[in-house]
Amino acid sequence: MITEISRKAHWLIKTERRPASDPSRTAPAGVPGEEEALEPMLYNFTKRRRLAVLLAALSVVALVLVGRWLNATKVGGQQPAEPFRIAGNFYYVGASDVAAFLITGPEGHVLLDGGYPSTARLIMASIAKLGFDIKDVKVLLNSEPHADHGGGLTALQQASGAQLWASDASADSLASGGDDPDGVLPLRALIWIGVLGYPPPRVDHRFKDGDTIRVGPIALTAHVTGGHTRGCTSWSFSVRDGDRMLNVVSACDLGVLATSRYPEQGADRERSIRVLRGLPADIWVTCHARWWGRYRKFVASTTAKNPVDPFIDPEGYRAFIDAAEAELRQGRVH
Fold this sequence. Notes:
Blueprint: H1 2-16, H2 34-73, E1 84-87, E2 90-92, E3 101-103, E4 109-112, H3 120-129, E5 137-141, H4 147-150, H5 153-160, E6 163-167, H6 168-175, H7 185-192, E7 203-207, E8 212-215, E9 218-224, E10 233-241, E11 244-251, H8 265-277, E12 283-286, H9 289-292, H10 294-301, H11 314-330
Parallel strand pairs: 4-5, 5-6, 6-7, 11-12
Antiparallel strand pairs: 1-2, 2-3, 3-4, 8-9, 9-10, 10-11
Helix pairs in contact: 8-11
């Protein structure tokens, strides 16, 4: 048996070195022809290749499904935070860092920002803990459409029935689940296949720079302060604390991400810094609580004679803008 196998192998090796016209290439009795000998090898190779392609496809599908699950359950390190009154009818209802704010009124409430998809439940729990009903929220607003600020808007919209207002550029991104035309292609591709991004909310209204959104006596003015994203929006409004009126500014992020660039970005940031410097601010906040000192100010308010006073911080507001301008001059990118 071994001798027979060796003889056939020896013939195949020898005939590989001879021209096709050589009559000696004719297989001896009991030895398969060249095509017959190659056929099983080709079959096995094709079979292995198909198996490899199938395994690769299954791996990609598995990675996409796992990525989608991780994205749907992502909280970005966020923990529940104690909700509290900042001043008058202005409340903090966000997570430990990703911020959200409630402005209450007799004809309905306004909710600013939605956090991640999975932190929407924290926002709703905070609203309930303060004694308010999510169904009384009539308007949803947004600072910028990245997943950590726009991701939870769909869940909040479904729970409240509220109408969502957004700037033109932000509206397009929100309605596509976070897809930003200015984002880098690999990041956008991950959004397209569901590994990143979020369930798209319904955008009911688009506003222009300087428009005012009203719900009864509540009035918030939109300031499109592009740079972080094209449609990044800062908000200004007033709240009453006893016998004094306080000016509030919710400033949109002014930093630049390496994953989101566009030609007019520098000019937009210059203009946004000028706009924010021109807004009077007694109280200021941003979409990330650590930037405006949420915890520090909240702790101070628990022992202050007037719990609003720790939140009055025009110096901190100017320092925030100064830092953003310094980043612009230095060309710093996050």
